[in-house]
């Protein structure tokens, strides 16, 4: 079955760029059946959807993060990545990568998220 | 953004109890609600998709219902391993949003 694993630095300085990679095994990110997503969870808090990328390179970003966010994919490595610029302490969170199952009706899709990676804690601090 | 309001924020129940968690959407979202279970230090796990469909491998004591704005996750007979936080999520429109979570504890 598909498995996802986040990697990247656990500590980032304020104003710098947070960069994470998600390695996917047991399935291909070239599949048109899924979005490849990032979600974060602030310590002790709820979940915040960051954005996703589709196999054709199209993506959707949470408007609250859009100006600082880039999600990209490397099909040859079966990986996708997140870059968040100009980070502050408010970006301290556990970051999850995940596969979102595309359930489409008409012109819109209504994904559910399964499975998730184990998550990586990223702390923004000097 | 669509707001998802979950209630209660926490509950305590005994093994064997029937437990109900509700989620209310800020506008009508048909049946585009999914439910997740998260245990401490772990990633969320999908339980129910599109309001009432049980994810493969999830015990049948979990069920979901609802449409429009009001949705329910029910655990028919609470088990010790069900101690966790449960989240609803709407996928009607972007951005996807989540409820604030319900922490379920075993008495």
Provide a descriptive summary of the structure in words.
The complex is a heterodimer of chains A (126) and B (107). Chain A has 126 residues and is an all-beta fold. Helix content of chain A is 0%, strand content 54%. In chain A, the strands form three sheets. In chain A, strands 2, 4, 5, 6, 9, 12 and 13 form a seven-stranded mixed beta sheet that branches. With 107 residues, chain B is mainly β. In chain B, the strands form two sheets. In chain B, strands 2, 4, 5, 6, 9, 10 and 11 form a seven-stranded mixed beta sheet that branches. Chain B has a four-stranded antiparallel beta sheet with strand order 1-3-8-7, with no helix packed on it. In chain B, a hairpin with a 3-residue loop joins strand 5 and strand 6. Chain B starts with a strand and ends with a strand. The mean pLDDT of chain B is 97. The interface between A and B is medium-sized, with 23 and 24 residues.
Helices, strands, pairings?
The complex is a heterodimer of chains A (126) and B (107).
Chain A: E1 3-7, E2 11-12, E3 18-25, E4 34-41, E5 47-53, E6 59-61, E7 69-74, E8 79-84, E9 93-101, E10 104-105, E11 108-109, E12 112-116, E13 120-124
Parallel strand pairs in A: 2-13
Antiparallel strand pairs in A: 1-3, 3-8, 4-5, 4-9, 5-6, 7-8, 9-12, 9-13, 10-11
Chain B: E1 4-7, E2 10-13, E3 19-25, E4 33-38, E5 45-49, E6 53-54, E7 62-67, E8 70-75, E9 84-90, E10 97-98, E11 102-106
Parallel strand pairs in B: 2-11
Antiparallel strand pairs in B: 1-3, 3-8, 4-5, 4-9, 5-6, 7-8, 9-10, 9-11
Search tags:
A: mainly beta; 7-stranded mixed sheet; 4-stranded antiparallel sheet; B: 107 residues; mainly beta; 50% strand
Can you give me a brief rundown of this structure?
The complex is a heterodimer of chains A (126) and B (107). With 126 residues, chain A is mostly beta strands.
